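Translate structure to sequence.
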């Protein structure tokens, strides 16, 4: 099992999860984070820390596409282990539906 970052992280990119991860398995895109599935130790500490409720165990049905997206971008985006401030407009996007199709950016973030 691994944990997976999903749609609601896009344009919110809160980084509370990054700060608590004991193995630094988060990777940063321009407007979201992903978890490297081969590095995640399944501890689950990140899930309750996500204010956007965008992190789930991969055992939740229907997350196969998100697991693939996390794996793909974790291999090309920079690692992030330090919490930074979320985007100033994060709250405006929290809970919006279909953010992948509307806002997802394949561009990398800053990383550490």
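Result:
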């Amino acid at each position: 099992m691994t944990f997976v970052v999903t749609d609601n992280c896009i344009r919110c990119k809160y980084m509370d999860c990054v700060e608590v991860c004991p193995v630094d398995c988060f990777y940063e895109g321009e407007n979201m984070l992903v978890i490297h599935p081969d590095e995640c130790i399944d501890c689950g500490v990140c899930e309750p820390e996500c204010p956007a409720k965008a992190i789930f165990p991969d055992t939740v049905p229907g997350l196969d596409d998100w697991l693939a997206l996390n794996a793909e971008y974790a291999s090309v985006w920079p690692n992030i282990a330090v919490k930074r401030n979320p985007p100033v407009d994060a709250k405006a996007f929290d809970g919006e539906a279909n953010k992948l199709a509307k806002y997802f950016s394949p561009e990398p973030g800053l990383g550490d």
